[in-house]
Batch of 2 targets.
Target 1
Amino acid sequence: GAVVSQHPSRVICKSGTSVKIECRSLDFQATTMFWYRQFPKQSLMLMATSNEGSKATYEQGVEKDKFLINHASLTLSTLTVTSAHPEDSSFYICSARDRERGHQETQYFGPGTRLLVL
Amino acid sequence: DQQVKQNSPSLSVQEGRISILNCDYTNSMFDYFLWYKKYPAEGPTFLISISSIKDKNEDGRFTVFLNKSAKHLSLHIVPSQPGDSAVYFCAASAWPGTASKLTFGTGTRLQVTL
């Protein structure tokens, strides 16, 4: 239970293009999802909190116009990296909370998306 | 300011023995703590958690201990198995509620040897 999927698992794109990453909660509804970024051999950095039906809350230093987040339903949040540049290459991971299962603060993570911008 | 610290970047343990991973935190508002296991190029997998009203939580081979006065928690894995080799992150949450966030440590790479 508490399965979170991400698509695509990896993507290679040209500099200047936009890339959309989907995060889905497969067996539960998630009013809140989170987007993280992980650089090699470093910890997970929270980018933003995605709230269903409202605007995302971005962490300090994260450009909201560059990383567009849409949480249109209780099972889907999307992260769009606009006008991607090589420095945006990273591992992006989403997570969601399942309020019906376990502790309300536990987040369940997707498998991640490896983005490489050429 | 690193509010959650895992001071040991790596740990090597023999199969069958106990693995002890440590985590320290500075924010006294943290009241819920979690451990995640992560393989390369995969998302973290939830292992075990503990609320600040407890000092121990056990689930199979995994036990988490919390020492609130020392702001320290540890994860014990007994017995350690080769499949436990991964990076382990501790995480903490400050405000239970609708929008609380997890703060992660920097991770400890556990290597279980034969």
Target 2
Amino acid sequence: QVQLQESGPGLVKPSETLSLTCTVSGGSISSYYWSWIRQPPGKGLEWIGYIYYSGSTNYNPSLKSRVTISVDTSKNQFSLKLSSVTAADTAVYYCAREVVTLVPPGYFDYWGQGTLVTVSS
Amino acid sequence: AIQMTQSPSSLSASVGDRVTITCRASQGIRNDLGWYQQKPGKAPKLLIYAASSLQSGVPSRFSGSGSGTDFTLTISSLQPEDFATYYCLQDYNYPQTFGQGTKVEIK
């Protein structure tokens, strides 16, 4: 059974960089796409971006200038960095596995439990 | 980006009721649509992919239909554990976009 677990600071100061890591267990990170998705408190879901195990990425244009997603296949982990954060970036951040049948995009079959990141001084 | 509009935003229903939620895309997305269930404090859970394919382990009372711009999620007989918020997600192109959600509450 594949499991995903987010980790990282729960509190980030405005203008600083949010950094999160997702550790994949019960399966290999290879041959799949891996995404970050966020949900502000009481609001809907927003796709942030994905990374393929080979390292190719695609980001939401609304966040593209501030987002970097990277992968470490030796550790079965992938990571999110979001720079210049403001209070609007306060959200629960989820990592998820994306299943692509022919060409991306695909659907999300496994999700982490989510981690709340609050942006506040 | 493709806009996904769900209706209704919320509904009240009783156990045993048949419930239908709709999702409309701002442009045609073939059958590249999924439905997700989210309970408070939990991650979303995949119910349906490719508009009508039931994810492994999901009860058969859940079904999906539609293609192009109009899609439907149906719960044939609502159970107590089905009270949750439901989201559609288009995976036709990037950025993938979610509907705003439909909260199913107990009547």
